[in-house]
Write a structure and sequence with these properties.
Blueprint lengths: L15 E6 L8 E7 L2 H4 L7 E7 L13 H10 L3 E6 L10 H15 L1 H4 L1 E11 L1 H22 L21 E7 L9 H6 L10 H11 L19 H4 L5 E5 L1 E3 L3 H13 L4 E4 L2 E5 L13 H19 L2
Helix pairs in contact: 2-10, 3-5
C-alpha cells in the first residue's frame, strides 16, 4: 500500500495529528485523525471557516492506514479550499465489524463538536472513501443518522459500561456529498458471486486475500449480512433518504464490485431520490490508483482526482 507514495512529487505529510477518545464503540480506546490543510487554512483569520472532507482509507477493513490517501489529500488541499481529515479507524481482526463504522461516527462527531476550534465549517462537510473506505463513506453517515434519531427520541445517558445510549450533536451540521471509489457495498452476496461479475477475471484481487479480509472483518458476526452498516446497498429506502442528495461513485470497469455499485446507484436514484454521478473508470482494476511501480506516476489517477475535486468544490459552493 505504501509503494504508491514513492513516485515524485511525493505526497504531503499531515499538518496535524489529533488523537481522540472512542465514545460510540463498546471497544474502548483512541483513534487518530490526520489533518491535511490547504495553504489558505494555515494563513486564515480566526473567523474563517473551511469545508472539510472526511476520508476513510481502504484495505479490506484489515490493513492500511489513514496516510495511504495522502495523494488524494494533496489534490483536495491544492485544488479546493477544503481540509481533508483522514480517519485511522481500528482494524480487523482485532477490531471486527462494526468497530470501524463506530470509529467513523466518532470522527465525524468530533469534527462537528470542535468545528470552531479547528476552523471547520460544519455546514460544509463531505465524506470520501476508497474500497473498504467507500463502504464506510456510506455506512458511517447511515449509522450517524440512526444514533441521532435515537437521541431525539430519548435523553442522552450513559450505561454502567460507559456506552452512549444516545449521541448528542448540539452543533448543526450538513454533509453535502458522499464520494466513493471502487466501494464494497453489498455483503449479502458471496464473494465468489461478486467476483464472477468482473469481465476480466485476471484483474481480480487474489481470492486468498479477499477471503482473509472478509473473515477478519466478520469475525464472530453471525447475523444477517443485510445490516445497512455492513451492506449499505441493502439499507431500507427510508434510511437511504437521510443521506446527502449529492453522491459520486467511481467504480472500476475491471472489478467484481462494479456491478453492485451500479445496482446501488439505481436504488439511490429510484428509491431515495438522490442525484448520483456515476463515473466508471475504463480499463481499470480495483485500486488502480495505488500503482506499485515507484517510478510511475499515473496520469489517469491525477485526472480523476482533478475531476473529483472540481465536483467537491461545486458541492461546497452551493447554498
Amino acid at each position: 500500500m505504501a509503494l504508491h507514495k514513492l513516485p515524485h512529487p511525493r505526497p504531503p505529510r499531515p499538518h496535524a495529528v489529533i488523537s481522540i477518545p472512542v465514545t460510540v464503540s463498546p471497544r474502548t480506546g483512541r483513534i487518530k485523525l490526520l489533518l491535511y490543510a490547504p495553504p489558505s487554512y494555515l494563513a486564515r483569520e480566526a473567523y474563517q471557516k473551511h469545508p472539510v472532507v472526511v476520508n476513510f482509507h481502504g484495505g479490506g477493513f484489515t490493513i492500511g492506514s489513514a496516510a495511504d490517501d495522502a495523494r488524494f489529500a494533496h489534490a483536495v488541499t491544492t485544488q479546493t479550499d477544503a481540509l481533508l481529515v483522514s480517519v485511522e479507524y481500528r482494524l480487523a481482526p482485532e477490531y471486527p465489524f462494526p468497530t470501524a463504522v463506530e470509529d467513523g461516527v466518532d470522527a465525524i462527531l468530533y469534527l462537528i463538536e470542535h468545528a470552531h476550534k479547528l476552523g471547520i465549517d460544519p455546514h460544509n462537510m463531505a465524506v470520501n472513501g476508497f474500497s473498504a473506505g467507500g463502504n464506510l463513506a456510506f455506512s458511517v453517515p447511515l449509522k450517524l443518522i440512526e444514533l441521532l434519531s435515537k437521541a431525539q427520541a430519548a435523553s442522552n445517558t450513559q450505561d454502567s459500561h460507559g456506552e452512549r445510549n444516545g449521541v448528542s450533536c448540539p452543533t448543526p451540521y450538513k454533509i453535502r456529498a458522499i464520494m466513493a471509489w471502487y466501494p464494497s457495498l453489498d455483503f449479502t452476496s458471496p464473494r465468489a458471486i461478486r467476483k464472477a461479475t468482473n469481465p476480466r477475471q485476471d484483474k481480480e484481487l487474489p481470492t486468498i486475500l479477499t477471503n482473509l479480509f472478509d473473515a477478519s472483518y466478520l469475525l464472530d458476526y453471525n447475523r444477517d449480512n443485510q445490516s445497512p452498516y455492513l451492506s449499505p446497498a441493502a439499507a431500507p429506502a427510508n434510511l437511504l433518504r437521510g443521506l446527502p442528495n449529492n453522491i459520486v461513485l467511481f467504480p472500476c470497469q475491471w472489478d467484481g464490485l462494479a456491478a453492485e455499485a451500479y445496482r446501488f446507484k439505481e436504488r439511490l436514484e429510484c428509491d431515495a431520490g438522490k442525484e448520483v454521478m456515476f463515473h466508471v473508470i475504463p480499463e481499470a482494476r480495483h485500486g488502480f490508483d495505488r500503482a506499485p511501480n515507484p517510478f510511475y506516476s499515473s496520469a489517469k489517477r491525477e485526472n480523476l482526482y482533478r475531476r473529483a475535486c472540481a465536483e467537491l468544490s461545486s458541492f461546497f459552493a452551493r447554498d
